[in-house]
Design goal:
Number of domains: 2
CATH architecture of the largest domain: Roll
CATH class of the largest domain: Alpha Beta
Radius of gyration: 16 Å
Number of strands: 5
Distance between the termini: 44 Å
Number of helices: 5
Structural class: alpha+beta
Largest sheet: 5 strands, mixed
Helix content: 25-40%
Strand order of the largest sheet: 2-1-5-3-4
Order of helices and strands: EEHEEEHHHH
Strand content: 15-25%
Length: about 160
């Protein structure tokens, strides 16, 4: 029987305290303990980027992060970016530029782009492609995603 650990995290502005197994992944914690299923799990090796969340403001692979490592942290997930009724700027840009098809990779892209727009200028397509290089999409060919990010980088402003 493994010992459990109490953790308290802030997720999308709300505080949660839960007792978790030390080996529980952050992706599983978000999906199964908190009920936020927008964080997708693809490769389970940190390669595809589908599970990207923001951990204390920087992108992190939730499939490689243990939930206990996030005790006291501020976590942002795709659910905090907007809703069906009120899309955030990145979500609107993806919609307007047809930057998604099946949508499986989209939450990870949105979280990566949030981090990149907060911390980098993304002045040209090469910088945008480099910023997106840690996320894999099997459907779109990336061009529409690059177009969406180009518009976002040009129009700087609040992402919500």
């Amino acid at each position: 029987m493994s010992a459990h650990v109490d953790i308290t995290v802030t997720i999308n502005g709300l505080s949660y305290t839960r007792r978790v197994e030390p080996r529980m992944l952050l992706s599983d914690f978000l999906r199964h303990e908190i009920g936020l299923t927008g964080t997708h799990v693809g490769c389970e090796h940190g390669v595809c980027g589908a599970c990207t969340v923001l951990l204390d403001g920087r992108s992190a692979r939730s499939c490689l992060t243990l939930a206990v490592q996030t005790d006291g942290a501020d976590i942002e997930t795709v659910e905090g970016q907007g809703s069906v009724e009120s899309l955030g700027r990145i979500q609107r840009a993806f919609r307007d530029h047809h930057g998604l098809q099946c949508g499986f990779c989209t939450p990870g892209f949105i979280m990566t782009i949030t981090d990149m727009l907060r911390h980098h200028s993304l002045d040209n397509d090469d910088e945008i492609r480099e910023a997106l290089s840690g996320n894999i999409c099997r459907c779109t060919g990336y061009e529409h995603i690059v177009n969406a990010v180009r518009e976002l980088a040009r129009e700087r402003g609040p992402l919500r």
